[in-house]
Amino acid sequence: MSIGSHSIFKRAGGNSKRFLCTSQDGSRIVIYQDSSIRWCNASDSKYEFMSLEPTIEDVERVVLSPTATLLLLYNSKEVRVVEIPWGYSQVSYEGFQKFRYLVDLKQESLIKQVLFHPLAYREHCIVILKRDNTIHLLDRYYPYDKQPNLLVLNQHDGAFGMEGLVTDIESIAFSQDGLTLYTLSAAEGCDIYAFYPCLPCSIEIDSHQLDALMHKSIVQYENLSVETPDSTKRNTIKQFQFISKLRQRPENGQTKIDIPIEWLRVRGQGPFTIAPFPDRYYDRTAVQLEILPIGATNDLLLMSLDDGTIAVLYKDLELTMCWDSKGYSYNNSLALVESIRLEKGELVLKQGTMSQFFVLSGASDVYLVDTSPWSKILSNCIENSDLEPIADLQFKSKISKIEGVSNVDSYATWKKDSEPSDVFISKDAVFIKPTTVSDQPTSAKEQKNTDINVPRYEVALNQPMSEILSLNASFQAEAKKPLSKLIDPSKRQVKLNNEYNEEQLEILTNVSKEFLQKIVKAQAVGFNLHNRCLEQQYELTRQLQYSGEILSKQEKLRSKSQSQSSQCESKLQRQDKLLQRFSGLTEKLKRINESPKFREMNITDKEMAWFKEIRNQVLVFNQYVHNQKNLQDQLRYLQKELDKLSLEDKNVGEKSKSEWTELLSILENDTKIIKECNNQLAHASSEVGFNT
């Protein structure tokens, strides 16, 4: 059965908007329409159904949690969180509604946007943007009027003026790490602000992420100087203290950390500067903000304008956390990497991939924007601290039109039989487009891993550091030296514009020569340092590349180690069995030896004869051994005597040679006798065994 013909897409009545949501890997499917939820696994041919009571009308957006266990529905007046009962069938709505919030129209503002907090422990926190520009962080385990840790950001504190507040917020989005909440303001056209850190009362965060935050905080703290504003110093020190307290909690992989309420009340910082800022942007209004991941730790900001323009932005400076500073702005900088002009539409990230997003233009066409031709290179350069590859890089994305797709209401990825497909649905149709999971080339890495002859690694540093240090020391010593010739004070006070200024010009020429020599040395040191920096950057790139290759082989080594460990375990088990059998046999022999039954048994005549024969043969063998030893001693003695005689008379050599030959014949006869004795012993032993 094809995806488009799946029964989950069949309409049960009504003509309202359909929302399709899937898990990150595309294996779990959820569809909402007309206050009802359908869900199934991608491999199932049937789906489960549950209706919502009471109904919720005019739903603006549906969001599936990262674990695909919770479904978030909202309109301008209501927010509802429903648990998807995976593994159950024919269930009722009672017991699966986890949160419901109704806006009090007399006292509260309407709802504009709602998100799950990506770092919330067990997905307990939802973030609500209201039309009065306040941002509410709610715990779904409690009703709105009984929230134990209700947190409202960007709220007016009653002071005169609007300083420190973000107004006319159109859209919000979390950064890839879940720590920063970006807001898009249309007050001045298109301004971006950040709430950092934006955290719930309980977070679930990786210890490695905490370590990375600590490293950033240390670097920011060490870069503080006298010129740094007091507000930045205060926030940087407070950030260092905050991260230090988080790292003191027990770390067991993924951990739950409770954060005190005083650390949660953060203020917005910005607006971000955008450079370059095209002139046509001044006449436009911002509409939507999305965060596009391009690497493990890098992301881009996508800002859409009301004329269909999409600004692709990159945060080029590291932010500092802000708690108590109004109108705070430090390192709030964005670089305009690319400006894309398409039809006006909604930005939707492509699931299962990085660097790609769709533009759903409503009644018109659908476009796929692929930034990977340059964004992957940019991400790698940032991670490797090597900007050389982007020197000649063209920051131009690949834009393709999805043919045959229009009037799209929702998009998601459906993965069936390890083959993912992009699914676009409208009120009346379902569009299926095949896609690929990974578009990253792996052939080069696999080819490197299969190489047998691996060359020896050599450091790519041509100039030793000792030489550079020596040049620097020489320059420092030269720079400290005074001028070789002192200028007469009387000549110093004479104006240069006089008829006798030739001598003054000569003095200036000599002084200039000395300074030029020092400048030449300084340039030489600088040139060497510059080359050294380039070489170190290249060497760092190589080492990171090789480190990446080594890390990629860890999985193979781990799997091979597991197989070898299992083999070793089986060998050890076999050895234990053999040792048990050996110990059992030893115990049996010991019992036989200690048994009086075997001690009282008489030796038979054949056994007596066999033992006597063995004893006789042993005696004969020992006698032959002693004879051989005596003959060897005699041979050594004769050899010594022959050596003495050879010095006295040369003719003795022939006689000694004949004696030596005779002695060898005697030894050969003795050897034959010993072999014959051994054969007789073996024959006697075989006869005794046969008779027994």
UniProtKB/TrEMBL annotation:
InterPro entries: NUP88/NUP82 (IPR037700), WD40_repeat_dom_sf (IPR036322). GO terms for biological process: mRNA export from nucleus; protein import into nucleus; ribosomal large subunit export from nucleus; ribosomal small subunit export from nucleus. GO terms for cellular component: nuclear pore. One of its GO terms (molecular function) is structural constituent of nuclear pore. Keywords: mRNA transport, Nuclear pore complex, Nucleus, Protein transport, Translocation, Transport. It is found in: Nucleus, Nuclear pore complex. This is Nucleoporin Nup82. It comes from Zygosaccharomyces rouxii.
